[in-house]
Amino acid sequence: MARNVTLASRLRSVLRRLRHFGRGTDGTVTVEFIVWIPILVLILAFTADACQLYLIQADIWSVARDATRRMTIQQLTASPDTVTPYVKGQLLYYNTHYTITPSTTTTCTNKIQTINDIVSVSVPVQYASVFGILAAYGGFSSATLSANVTMLEEDSGGSC
Predict the structure, then answer these.
(1) Number of domains the chain is built from
(2) Which residues form the domain of 95?
(3) Does residue 149 lie within any of the structural domains?
(4) Which one-letter DSSP state was computed for residue 93?
(5) Domain-embedded: residue 16
(6) Residue whose C-alpha is closest to residue 125's, from 142, 100, 148
(7) 65, 150 in Cβ contact below 8 A?
(8) DSSP type of residue 160
(9) Rounded distance between C-alpha atoms, residue 84 and residue 103, angstroms
(10) Alpha carbon 146 to chain centroid distance?
(11) Which of 46, 80, 98, 155 maximizes the CB count within 10 A of its CB?
């Protein structure tokens, strides 16, 4: 008989603890934290990707502009053998997915020679982002960051 009393008292003790647990609010902050932390981490990763893409785009423009200027003043020739190593060395975040294309076009109009030096630099977004959030979820999987800079070369007395 004594055994039934202890079993009943233990059962009441367990039920009392369960009622207290159901009414208690001690763990609500932890549950809210667990619910919100993945969302906050996703927002942080999205922001980091966007900042990285803006940084790479600005870097591509700056390096393409500098390479084109150097071609215009004849410090570089318009061949991939000279422009590509220069651009690779100047880029902040170079990877093998960059496409670097130098070219020169010459036109003659009314016996006036016009020379345009062009440098194009591009990289797919999926290889430029840190976490790939924008490429995977932002619809930018086939997008490309690119810069196409053209400068008019001064006439050096050439005629057509």
Answers:
(1) 1
(2) 26-153
(3) yes
(4) S
(5) no
(6) 142
(7) no
(8) -
(9) 11
(10) 13
(11) 98
Strand partners, 121: 100, 147
Torsion angles phi and psi, residue 155, rounded to 5? -70, 125
- 110-140 pLDDT tens trace: 777 778 899 999 999 888 888 888 777 767 7
Decide if 160 is inside a domain: no
The residue to which tokens 């870097």 are assigned? 59
Residue 78 to residue 106: CA distance in whole angstroms: 12
Q: pLDDT tens digits, residue range 47-95?
A: 999 899 999 999 999 999 999 999 988 898 888 899 999 999 999 887 8
- β-pair partners for 153: 115
Tokens of 53: 């893409």
Q: Within 13 Å of residue 109, how many CA atoms lie on the same side as its CB?
A: 5
In a domain, 83, yes or no: yes
